[in-house]
Amino acid sequence: MAKRTSLLGPAVASPSPREPEPDHQPAPSSTARSSGKRPGKYHLGAYFDPADPTAEAFRVLAARTRRSHQDLLAEAISELVAKYDADKQFGRA
Fold it and tell me: H or E stretch including 39?
């Protein structure tokens, strides 16, 4: 019997070589360090056990709402700050 080729072959084939990105240094930020991939941004996140019910619920919510993890985290952080009324707590109001 002849060996069948995988339907996923083209999708998992080794990627073609990318053109090198130009060497440019983002302006240094005084408030946060930044990797070269997202200048002017900083990472805000946490590590969870994959079996943690909160992490699982978060992944399911992202899939069901078709929203990115970044979008959901931004909304959650906004609501957390509002909940604790951070502006008044830190004298910004």
Answer: none
